[in-house]
Specification:
With about 375 residues, the protein is an alpha+beta fold. It has 15 helices and nine strands.
């Protein structure tokens, strides 16, 4: 009986042979034109040669695949690479694209990579998402769901699937109840600002001014790290949030010329004390220079800056406090208490939808204080 042909975009058994420089790994691979070709790679050991070969096969899939090659018999990993190529061409942030890449390689492919598209079922998708939730948490499972949904949508468009199966899968369970938003009081915010000015180590790291900028704007830490002098108008007392610092694999830190979302591009009017702080910092810098550089003048890493801030606020007697809490969430709560509408607060924070501002950023208040007065009629 004849051996069945390999699926498009798949390799066969790996063979190893010893060479004068190490080990050679080779296998036959069925390219997307249907031709069976031998692919080989070498390494200093059997394991190294195998890793090099598998990477070569993976990259071969990425280059060769296109929408027209997808059928019901296509392997999920081949569909995934086609979808990833399409996603990479969209106007998405480098961090989002990197997150999708990691989700495919670490979760989708190990569990479903060799499954044929036509073999996908709602039950299989459900079990996969449940396993990811148990192992890595609901956040990772939601990212895996988004990737798999995009893949199935692509397969549906080329008639490899009748419908997007992921849409029929059950919801991803939250591991713990979502906590109510927390924020610092006005007195606590003032106390924190004052205490940081007495911390010599915090001053050397430029933490007091960074914290002031976060409290004065409610901006994200990456947006403050990416603020350039060309976006600051001290005469008008405004700053323009138009970029954010992100780390891109293979490139390092970049000042991405676009905030997190379209609503994130905004012009903010500063309180007088923040204008004074920026005026004191301005010493003839170029418009392209960042306002809050790293000690050597380069871009600040938001993650490292967050760690420095955490260290400083812990020393000030606020352990566990993050820039998100004393910055964005506390700013939102102060504005809310002063009578600003959810839409106005969302505009300051750079939210497109005020419902996110309400559910995630505003501290819990007494629900409907007038209800107690109304219900007082029940007294006897």
């Amino acid at each position: 009986m004849a051996r069945p042909a390999m699926d498009l975009g798949t390799g066969g058994k790996i063979f190893f042979s010893t060479t004068t420089k190490g080990v050679r790994a080779r296998c036959f691979y069925r390219d997307h034109d249907g031709v069976r070709r031998e692919v080989e790679r070498s390494g200093t050991s059997k394991a190294a040669a195998e890793v090099a070969l598998r990477r070569a096969l993976r990259d071969r899939v990425r280059v060769a695949i296109g929408d027209g090659d997808i059928t019901g018999d296509t392997a999920v990993k081949v569909l995934g690479e086609a979808w990833f190529v399409a996603v990479s061409k969209r106007d998405l942030s480098p961090n989002t694209i990197s997150a999708y890449r990691g989700t495919l390689d670490r979760h989708v492919y190990p569990a479903l990579g060799e499954v044929k598209v036509r073999q996908l079922t709602v039950g299989l998708v459900d079990r996969f998402l449940a396993a990811v939730t148990d192992k890595s948490g609901p956040g990772t499972a939601k990212m895996a769901r988004a990737a798999l949904s995009g893949m199935c949508a692509m397969a549906t468009r080329v008639d490899a699937l009748d419908r997007n199966l992921v849409r029929d899968a059950g919801p991803i369970a939250r591991s713990t109840p979502k906590p109510a938003p927390r924020s610092l009081s006005l007195a606590q915010l003032r106390q924190l600002r004052a205490l940081l000015t007495y911390d010599e180590r915090a001053r050397r790291r430029d933490i007091p001014d960074l914290v002031d900028a976060l409290m004065a704007t409610g901006a994200r830490i990456g947006e403050i790290c990416g603020l350039v002098w060309g976006a600051v108008d001290l005469n008008a007392g405004t700053i323009e949030i138009r970029s954010t610092v992100v780390r891109v694999p293979g490139q390092g830190l970049i000042n991405k010329p676009r905030p997190k979302s379209k609503a994130g591009h905004r012009l903010l009017l500063l309180p007088g004390w923040a204008v004074a702080m920026l005026r004191a910092r301005q010493t003839g810098q170029a418009p392209s220079d960042v306002v809050f550089p790293a000690p050597k003048g380069s871009l600040r890493d938001p993650s490292n800056t967050q760690a420095d801030i955490r260290d400083a606020v812990t020393g000030a007697g606020f352990p566990g406090l993050t820039s998100h809490l004393f910055g964005r969430k506390s700013v939102a709560t102060l504005l809310d208490e002063d009578g600003h509408s959810p839409r106005q607060i969302a505009d300051v924070l750079g939210h497109q939808n005020p419902s996110l501002t309400l559910s995630t950023y505003l501290g819990r208040k007494v629900s409907n204080p007038g209800a107690a007065e109304t219900l007082s009629v029940l007294a006897f």
